[in-house]
Design a protein that fits this description.
Elements: H1 10-17, E1 21-24, E2 30-37, E3 48-55, E4 61-66, E5 87-90, E6 93-96, H2 102-116
Antiparallel strand pairs: 1-2, 2-3, 3-4, 4-5, 5-6
């Protein structure tokens, strides 16, 4: 029986292990990790759907790294849409995100959290 390529990717396995983990800060902020396997596609080529979020004490999402949906509308000057759905929500703005690896995703997320907390 063939092995799933994810079974040998320890970075993706680490991200999967963080699924449903929540970290709470003294000042009311909290961080939630969600990550689960999906069938690889052109939108989610690595086969992991994820959502890493930072919320304030009022439960308002401040930061969100995810790939749950397409993120950016087509530009008036450029008709192509990004194939992968990886993106970042920073307050009310959405920015494209280039998924390099699961460990880089986690590092980028924590670096953004530290900017806001």
């Amino acid at each position: 029986m063939a092995m799933d390529p994810i079974d040998n990717d320890y970075e993706l396995l680490t991200l999967l292990e963080l699924n449903d983990i929540t970290f709470y800060y003294k000042d009311g902020y909290w961080v939630k990790f969600e990550a689960w396997r999906v069938r690889p596609s052109k939108h989610v080529p690595h086969g992991i759907r994820y959502s890493l979020t930072l919320h304030d004490g009022n439960n308002t999402r401040i930061i969100g790294y995810d790939n749950a949906h397409h993120s950016l509308p087509k530009s008036k000057n450029y008709k192509a849409r990004k194939e992968t759905w990886d993106h970042v929500h920073k307050k009310r703005k959405v920015h494209s995100y280039e998924f390099d690896s699961a460990s880089q995703l986690i590092e980028d997320f924590w670096n953004t959290v530290y900017e806001y907390t």
